[in-house]
C-alpha cells in the first residue's frame, strides 16, 4: 500500500514522470536479452522493409513510423520500442544515389552492427553503387558476416510458381539472375539467400518464400546470445510486457484510488465531472511509460469503444448517492472498478501497439469487462474485510 500511496502523492503533485526504477529494470532486461543489430544495405524498394516485416511481424505502417534518422543518409528502427528493443535495423537509404559516401555510416554503425544484409532485386542488375557502398563496409570489418539477399524472385519468372527452394535449374531466368548477382558481389558476401517475401493477398502459395533460409543464415551468423534473442522473440516480448505491467499497475491503482475518493463524495453528478479527468490523466501517464503517444481524440475513440463511459454514466443516473452511505459505497466501487479496468485495457492496447498491431474493438471491450469484473470483486472483498 505504501507504493500505491506514493503514486497518489506523485499524481497529486503533478509528477507524471515514470517510476524511478523503470529505466534500471529495462536496462537489466536488455542486458539479459541482447538485441541483434542488422545493417540493411540496398536500393529503395529492394525488399528491406519486407525483411524487417518478416523478422518482426510488424506491419509497414509501424515499421515506417518507427524509423528515426541517425545519420545524413541512414535511419534506425528499434523493435518493438526504443525503450526496450529486441532487434535493431539500420537502413542505409542513400546507397543507390551517385556520390554516396559511406564514411559517416561506417563510423556510426561499424561498432554496433552484427550482420550486414544486402538486398538486390532479381531483375535489377545495376548494382554498381550498392557494391561501391558495400566495399568500405566490408573492409572496415572483414569478419562481420554479410548476407546477400536476391529479392523479388517472382519478377524473374512472371506468372510461374516458385520452384522448390534451391532448385533453380529448371527456371533458367531465375538461375541466371541469382548467378549474376553472386558474380557482381563476389568477395563481398558470405552467403547468398534468394527470397521472395510477399503479402498473403499477393496470391503466392508461399508468401515467405526463402524466409526460413534467411532466418537460418542469420542465426548461423549471430553470436550465441543474440541468436537466442531471435529464436525466443515471443518469450522476450512477453517478458518486456511483464516489466511494463509491473510498473504500470501501481500507477493504475493510484488513479483508481483517487477516482474512488471522488466517487464516494455524496453529491450526485459531481463525480461525472471529476472522474473523466482522473482517467484521462491516468491514460496520458501510462502512454508515457509505454512510449506511445495518446491524443485526446484517440483517447476518446478508444475509451468509447470500450464502453467505459457508459458504466460511469449509468451509475450516476441511478442517483444512488441520495441514499446515505449506500450511495457513496456504490459510487466509490464503480469509480474504482471502471478506472482500474480502463487502465488495464489501455495497457493491453499500448502493448499491442508496441508489438506491431492494434487490437480490435471486441477484444479491447472483452479485456475491459474482464478487468472490471475482477476489480469489482476485489473491491467487494476488501470491503468485507474492512467491515467489523
TrEMBL record:
GO terms for cellular component: membrane. The keyword Transmembrane helix applies. This is G domain-containing protein. It is a multi-pass membrane protein. It is found in: Membrane. The lineage of its organism: Bacteria, Pseudomonadati, Planctomycetota, Planctomycetia, Gemmatales. Keywords: Membrane, Transmembrane, Transmembrane helix. InterPro entries: DUF697, P-loop_NTPase. It comes from Urbifossiella limnaea. Coiled coil: none annotated.
